[in-house]
Amino acid sequence: MPFPSGYTPAIQPDLIHVGRADLWTGVTLPVGVGNFVALVGGAPATGTYVGATMAATILNYNPGIFDIVTQQNTGVVGTVITSEVFNIDITLGELTYANLKAFMLGAADATSFVTVGGIIVPTLASVLLVAPRRAGNYITAMLYQAAMIDNRQFSFDRTGQMVHKVMARGQAVVTRVLGDQLGYFNPNQTST
After folding, report:
1. How high is the pLDDT of residue 1?
2. Residue 145 is inside which H or E element, if any?
3. What are the chain's domains?
4. Are 58 and 89 in contact (CB under 8 A)?
5. Which of 16, 72, 104, 168 has its CA at 20 to 30 Å from residue 48's CA atom?
């Protein structure tokens, strides 16, 4: 579709996000709907810093829907959400004991390393992603509580880095109000 006569597009390259993101776990949740975790110098006041991401980090919101149809109409007359998946796919580069403990789904703490096997209910933790914007401020995304799912593969390669992928899948905090139970995405957050 062509632009209307006399219209000049306002392209703002600084608003195109290019760059890394930092990750925190165990961050205290914001209180009430419409609030977000405050940042001081680009960091939350609580939580554990996990490190910078090594590859593209993907924020995924996938609602499952059911379309309502009637015998009297060929079109969809209504839609309801039947499920919601809100997750963050992360590639971590820093292999630390704290990261292993936080991101191995069924890990047991062995003081300086982890063991796995036999745990049925995984530990849940909040996950906060903070990406500095070139135009200033930050892009933030938070899962209020997440299980660290997906396979863990550790590659030992003398010509490459050992990176490990993690999927943090949000689980609803049902005590929060409807519409604010999984997390949030804030494309222009300020820092104090």
Report:
1. 62
2. strand 138-149
3. 18-189 (4.10.410)
4. yes
5. 16
